[in-house]
Amino acid sequence: MKTIACKDMGMACDFVAKADTQEEVLMKLAEHGKEVHNMTDADMTPELKEMAIASIKEE
Ligand SMILES: [Zn+2]
User: Is the CB of residue 7 less than 8 Å from the CB of residue 14?
Assistant: First the structure.
C-alpha cells in the first residue's frame, strides 16, 4: 500500500491518500486537492508531482 499525507505537501490537513499503485495514489491526492483545497489542473505542476512522489510512503 502506498500513502501520501496531505500535510507532507505543506497543507494543514489530516487527509492521507492510499492506493496500491503510485499512479492511483497521485490521482487520489489530486482529486482531494481539487475538492478540498480548490486546486486546479494548472496547480498540478511537474514540481508538485515530484514533491508528491517524494512524499509517498510504503505501508
Ligand atoms: Zn488536504
Answer: yes
Cell numbers at 58, concatenated = 510504503
* Entry pTM: 0.90
Ligand 1 midpoint to CA 32 (Å): 6
Q: Which pLDDT belongs to residue 31? A: 95
Planar angle of CA 56, 30, 41, nearest 5 degrees: 130
What separation in Å is there between the alpha carbon of 43 and the centre of ligand 1?
Answer: 14
Ligand 1 mean position, distance from CA 40 (Å): 14
Whether the pLDDT of residue 44 is over 90: the answer is no
